[in-house]
Design a protein that fits this description.
This protein is mainly alpha-helical and 486 residues long. It has a domain of 218 residues. It is 70% helix and 2% strand. The chain is globular and about 65 Å long.
Length: 486
């Protein structure tokens, strides 16, 4: 491992936390929002600086020169490698966009603080190479989300309880799995299968994979969409799977991941199609598309695994922008129903265009960054299991129908009767334009991104080959006997 030229990793993790602390001071809500945006933008620039140094160094792993554990224990707390190098700016950009488009409605600085804290914890999670450390960060990441749920009022106690039970169980299972892997040297090789299965259960809960999905629609419906997006869109559960489950899992574990994820993708897509509540429809689309990421991670082909890693980032960015567009529209109109036509395209064409573009990009519309991930995922799936490729296409097609139906209901078919002030504010426009340009330019110039994700896929598959328990047992060859001569 090579030390970086500057303490990028520690500084970028601490920056959002310092911004959250500064929000406790006096000042108007607008001033605090500008301060939060400034902290998030600085965090984004620091992640880009770390990305540039990693690319220039040409080393597989970089550590922070002032890592607090490196000199004490000899093992670093944070490590930047090929898997995490794109995830840092990915998570930082989601936080910046969410703060830019956050409506003025509630005017609660606590929401801004919780979004900054959640972003810092997510980026920390993408840097830790130890399962127990990741479990601790997952537990800490629950706190901002639970705080936002409690802020909604005592009538949401059931939602707090549901979220706490699911996320608490997920964290406990992952921690137990990490402990099992840590004591493998004491208990022997038998500890690794137990640890892997425990971590698999944690990942399935965290990702909302059927039948552990009921927390997700309720969570997206109850909290401000920006907070839900900052918590869920980076998909820490996918990182836990890619880092600690997929490289070491037996074939049986991969099959559980694949079949459960594919069923969830189709199940979520079908549920989204029949929703009358726009938030719940978005939650099921999110559940369905993020499940396809898990379906890609279980692939043992380079193309399929690369597709899953690409879809992780592209789908996360697009769904984040799609949800933010819904959040902005909700701030202008109130509760959004999908069983009637609202109209309004002529009064807010930029918001309508952003809603449609980012929604279609999340399902891999041609010309966007998501198209490459979907194509690689389907190619890898069809090469291994043709029926799996069909299920992937089915889930994507149904989600596309749901997105178009939402667009037609929310922006077309009627005369808009809401108040005149509907145009996007400058900060909102900045957030949507940044996300839209990124998904389009990423689709036009995808080489750097896809090459990085392919390198990560190759590294994961090499790790699988080096661990006997992760390899599928090859059938013994039968001896060939020549027929006895009479």
């Amino acid at each position: 491992m090579t030390a970086m030229s500057f303490s990028w990793l520690l500084v970028l993790v601490v920056t959002p936390l310092l911004g959250a602390l500064l929000l406790f001071g006096s000042g108007t809500y607008d001033r605090k929002r500008r301060l939060a945006i400034a902290a998030a933008l600085l965090n984004l620039l620091l992640t880009v600086a770390a990305f540039v140094e990693f690319r220039g160094a040409g080393k597989p792993r970089l550590v922070d020169p002032f890592d607090p554990l490196l000199r004490v224990l000899g093992e670093p707390l944070f490590v930047l490698d090929e898997l995490g190098v794109f995830l840092l700016p990915f998570a930082a950009l989601i936080c910046v966009a969410a703060l830019l488009v956050a409506p003025r409605g509630g005017k609660d600085p606590g929401t801004l603080r919780r979004m900054l804290v959640a972003a810092s914890l997510t980026q920390s999670a993408f840097l830790v190479p130890d399962a127990i450390a990741l479990a601790v960060l997952m537990a800490a990441g629950m706190v901002p989300a639970i705080g936002e749920l409690r802020r909604q009022g005592p009538e949401y106690r059931s939602s707090v309880r549901i979220f706490s039970i699911y996320m608490g169980l997920s964290t406990a299972l992952f921690f137990a799995g990490g402990v099992a892997l840590r004591i493998e040297g004491i208990l022997g090789a038998e500890a690794r299968p137990w640890g892997t299965w425990l971590m698999l259960g944690a990942v399935l809960i965290r990702k909302g994979i059927f039948p552990f999905h009921s927390w997700m629609p309720d969570f997206f419906e109850r909290v401000p969409l920006g907070v839900a997006i900052v918590f869920a869109a980076p998909q820490v559960g996918a990182y836990a799977a890619a880092r600690f489950v997929v490289p070491y899992a037996p074939e049986a574990v991969l099959k559980v991941i694949g079949y459960s994820a594919l069923f969830t993708a189709v199940y979520g897509a079908c549920l989204a199609l029949g929703q009358k509540n726009a938030r719940r429809a978005f939650a099921y689309i999110f559940m369905s598309q993020s499940a396809l990421v898990m379906a890609g991670l279980e692939s043992t082909s380079i193309e399929g695994l690369t597709g899953g890693l690409c879809l992780w980032v592209s789908c996360g960015l697009s769904l984040a922008g799609f949800g933010m567009a819904l959040w902005v529209l909700e701030a202008r109109r109130g509760f959004l129903r999908l069983d009637t036509f609202h109209g309004g395209y002529d009064r807010m064409p930029l918001l309508a265009s952003s809603f449609l573009l980012l929604g279609l990009a999340s399902i891999g519309f041609p010309g966007t960054l998501g198209f490459l991930g979907e194509e690689l995922l389907i190619e890898g799936a069809v090469t291994q299991y043709p029926r799996v490729g069909f299920v992937t296409l089915l889930a994507t097609a149904v989600n596309g129908i749901s997105i178009l139906a939402m667009y037609l209901s929310l922006f077309c078919g009627a005369k808009d009767r809401t108040p005149p002030s509907q145009s996007l504010r400058r900060r909102e426009l900045t957030g949507f334009v940044a996300l839209a340009l990124l998904v389009i330019l990423g689709g036009v110039f995808p080489r750097e991104f896809v090459s990085s994700r392919r390198a990560s896929a190759v590294e994961i598959l090499e790790q699988r080959k080096s661990i006997p328990i992760a390899r599928e047992a090859e059938p013994a060859e039968r001896p060939h006997h020549s027929p006895a001569k009479k």
